Amino acid sequence: MSLRMQNAKKPWPTKKVMEQIYDVNLWGSNDSEFYSGFGSHNPDLVEPYIKVLKTFLSSFNEPLTICDLGCGDFNIGKQLVKFSKQFIAIDIVPSLIAFNTKTFKAYNLKFACLDIAKDALPKADCVIIRQVLQHLSNAEVQKVVAKLADYKYVILTEHLPNGSFTPNIDIISGQGIRLKKQSGLDILQAPFNFKPKGIQELLSYNLKNNKGVIVTWLFEVF
User: Fold this and answer.
1) DSSP codes, 11-55
2) What are the tens digits of pLDDT across the range 155-208?
3) Is residue 72 a contact partner of residue 104, using CB atoms and an 8 Å limit?
4) Does residue 155 contact residue 127 with C-beta atoms inside 8 Å?
5) What residue numbers bound the domain in which 89 lies?
6) How many structural domains compose the chain?
């Protein structure tokens, strides 16, 4: 084994990485205890997203049970709880989940601290995954995608490059995404090859200064 290989550092566990992001405000700050970044707070992004999800969730005679994977600071999830039968919000950072549990109250709301790649996930009708998978390595994404077959609906949002790009270039899980590699996450493509029954693009927003496009899809799984 070469000296270079011997000295190579192993990536931090994803839990430690995400804890550090919030501890040192790597996604910015708005003077609150936890802040999940521009994508969770900019009105140009958040308001159309909430509107289209409200429309979808309100279309059912019987409200859906929703599982929010990577709920973050819950600035978005808090606006969707009332449209669900039960809303289960999950994140990997214990202190964040403890804060959310104290801060947000509703009879049909529950928070859980889980690693969505490693841990068993709660049963639900619909999963929301908003700009979460893009921060994970391909190995972790694969583990999450394998669990999506258990849900009837998946609402997935990803930040992609403008124009053509090479999908699913691997990264180390962390703060960044694949955009700097002119790549983005596409779970329909290799190595994930997710095969839903139906696909609908719900929303697309082009960021300024050629900083990519944020796209939300609805997958009907079965």
Assistant:
1) PPPHHHHHHHHHHTTTT---SSS----GGGT-HHHHHHHHHHHHH
2) 999 999 999 999 999 999 988 899 999 999 999 999 999 999 999 999 999 999
3) no
4) yes
5) 3-220
6) 1
